[in-house]
Amino acid sequence: MSRLRNPIAVARGLGAAKDGVGHWWSQRLSAGALVFLVPWFVVTAISLVGSDHANTSAFIAQPLNATLMLAFVLAMFWHARLGLQVVIEDYIHLPWLELTLQLLVKAVFALAAIASVVAIGRIAFTA
Questions:
Q1: CA 117 to CA 122: how far, in whole Å?
Q2: Contact call for residues 36 and 92 (beta carbons, < 8 A)
Q3: For residue 67, what pLDDT band results from cuts at 50, 70 and 90?
Q4: How far is the C-alpha of 118 from the C-alpha of 116, rounded, in Å?
Q5: Which domain holds residue 122?
Q6: Residue 70 lies in a domain
Q7: DSSP letter string over 41-72?
Q8: For burial by CB atoms within 10 Å, which of 22, 29, 36, 113 has the most?
């Protein structure tokens, strides 16, 4: 049986969302930032083991350290959100559940990022 429908009509709604390249670049850029920020964070965390609250707060309050900590936290949350978005898109096949999970992931990561920025800001500006 031959189809008389135009191929564009068959594919309508099934094509690319035109967001794949931007998502891919965002994920690669956040990964590139984390390549440098994760070792800095690990070394920092190890160097602060056994340090008291005042010394840790003073360390984080230094402008360079506060900036790097903010960059680390924001890049980490952004990268994790992008990764979970792909997992949900690939493995959740019920449209209502996919939408619900996507919105939940965005909300949780946005709140976590805001809370982290507020916490780092409080340490940086009150130490």
A1: 8
A2: no
A3: very high
A4: 5
A5: 20-126
A6: yes
A7: HHHHHHHTTT--HHHHHHHHHSHHHHHHHHHH
A8: 113
Say if 47 falls within a structural domain.
Answer: yes
**Burial annotation 64-91 (CB, 10 A radius, 16+ → b, else e):** ebbebbbbbbbbbbbbebbebbeebeee
Count CB atoms within 10 A of the CB of residue 17.
7
The string of pLDDT tens digits covering residues 85-118 is 999 999 999 999 999 999 999 999 999 999 999 9
d(CA 27, CA 50) in angstroms, rounded, equals: 35
Q: What is the tally of structural domains in the chain? A: 1
What are the pLDDT digits (tens) for 34-53? 999 999 999 999 999 999 99
User: For residues 100 and 93, what is the distance between their CA atoms, to the nearest angstrom?
Assistant: 12
Q: Do 98 and 59 form a contact (C-beta atoms < 8 A)? A: no
In a domain, 82, yes or no: yes
pTM: 0.82
